């Protein structure tokens, strides 16, 4: 008998300075489109997209919150990363200040976000590598130092939302780092299991419909 595919849903938030390309990364992932004239996000935008992991017989649905990067919206960020399962801290490889800002976001997530949140540090705009200000070796050293001092692992990747290079790989890495093996396990005591088993919800809805069906 063939094993059924598992379905799970996780909340993901994007953080980073304005104009680093957070929205471009999301739209490349969700719609496979890119717009050079994309306007800055106001507050936050919500999108969803699923990714299939055939070797794990699992499909992950991401609920994505793309937050605004302007300083005046910074106080709203906790509303979006609260209860998040994963976070993308995005920087522009041609802007050193944006990398410093991404590090600030990681510090804040370490202090305020839920325990066990999957964090990805993502450098965008590799299509402008000739203008690079953020040295990749320094980023890797920062990641190594951070991972050595922390129980949680920080994912690092670079991409070009404009060309579409590396974007899917980022979400694949995140999906594989989420607690998908725990979604079907029984919750003991007050232990919180991240994510939602959509397969279970579908079965519950089917049973409810059967129970409410007319004779």
TrEMBL record:
Alphabetical list of Gene3D superfamilies matching this protein: P-loop containing nucleotide triphosphate hydrolases
UniProt KW keywords: Nucleotide-binding
CDD domains attached to this UniProt entry: Rab5_related
One GO-annotated biological process of the protein: endosomal vesicle fusion
Signal sequence annotation: none
CC per GO annotation: early endosome membrane
Keyword Nucleotide-binding: yes
Lineage: Eukaryota, Fungi, Dikarya, Ascomycota, Saccharomycotina
Single GO molecular function: GTP binding
SMART domains: RAB, RAN, RAS, RHO
Entry-linked InterPro entries: P-loop_NTPase (IPR027417), Small_GTP-bd (IPR005225), Small_GTPase (IPR001806)
A Pfam family assignment: Ras
Protein name: GTP-binding protein ypt5
Top-rank lineage group of the source organism: Eukaryota
